[in-house]
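STRUCTURE:
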């Protein structure tokens, strides 16, 4: 996950770095967040007989939309990865952190 703090003459701010090319993603419409699909049958976190299912967690990676294909191909191919638009991440993250409705 390439979330960094960028320090400039005007102050500090978080910046998302593309895990493929290393450049900042400056516009959410130009980026994706991606995670490995995983193998449910061999997932060590999958529930066994009689166990309650626990959440499966995967690391998130960030890519420019133009970089997502090369990123996936270098890491097993597109079938190994899920992707969503970066613009969808922030509202879901805000809700998960109970920030919705706060300013």
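SEQUENCE:
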């Amino acid at each position: 996950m390439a979330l960094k703090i960028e320090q400039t003459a005007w102050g500090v701010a978080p910046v998302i770095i593309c895990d493929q090319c290393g450049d900042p993603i400056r516009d959410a419409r130009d980026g994706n967040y991606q995670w490995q699909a995983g193998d449910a049958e061999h997932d060590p976190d999958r529930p066994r007989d009689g166990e309650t299912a626990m959440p499966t967690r995967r690391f998130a990676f960030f890519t420019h939309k133009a970089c997502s294909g090369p990123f996936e191909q270098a890491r097993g191919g597109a079938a190994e990865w899920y992707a969503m638009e970066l613009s969808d991440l922030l509202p879901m993250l805000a809700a998960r952190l109970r920030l919705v409705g706060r300013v």
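REMARK: The chain has one domain: 3-38+57-96.
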